């Protein structure tokens, strides 16, 4: 008969200090679910919440990208939507909300620029249940693989 090994494990409470939610302006369904989760955590923990949205310049065709009016118009749309998310988070009860607007490839920009600047200890993002091209949901695996902090993917 072998002797049972005793593990010396104690459950310790784990609390996040700062959250970042990645919003995809082209994928409102998965973004809303992730946003709801992020707001719930930020309110419960009473911690800062960053809301990032990325203008995906790779989605623009050559004519659009060369037209300053098209790029600026798209940037203004995303900024307005980002402001709406910030307002909704505050109405829900999240006290400290920071909007972050950037441009480029979402996964890369979030990992290389936004996370080092904002310094969250948890990134939350949405992911569509069906793969789709150029949506932040498809960048969820990139974030999970390369982010220097924890990542939660909400479906």
From TrEMBL:
CDD domains: USP-like. The lineage of its organism: Bacteria, Bacillati, Bacillota, Bacilli, Lactobacillales. It comes from Latilactobacillus curvatus. Residues 16-155 form the UspA domain. Belongs to the universal stress protein A family. Pfam families: Usp. This is Universal stress protein A.
């Amino acid at each position: 008969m072998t002797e049972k090994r005793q593990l010396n494990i104690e459950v310790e409470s784990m609390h996040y200090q700062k959250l970042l939610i990645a919003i995809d302006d082209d994928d409102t369904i998965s973004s809303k679910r992730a946003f709801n989760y992020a707001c719930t955590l930020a309110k419960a923990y009473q911690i800062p919440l960053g809301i990032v949205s990325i203008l995906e310049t790779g989605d623009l065709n050559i004519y659009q990208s060369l037209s300053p009016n098209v790029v600026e118009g798209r940037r203004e749309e995303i900024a307005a939507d980002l402001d709406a998310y910030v307002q909704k988070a505050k109405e829900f009860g999240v006290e400290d909300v920071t909007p972050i607007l950037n441009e480029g490839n979402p996964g890369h920009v979030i990992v290389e620029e936004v996370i080092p600047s904002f310094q969250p200890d948890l990134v939350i993002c949405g992911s569509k249940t069906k793969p789709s091209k150029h949506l932040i949901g498809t960048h969820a695996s990139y974030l999970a693989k390369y982010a220097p902090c924890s990542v939660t993917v909400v479906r």
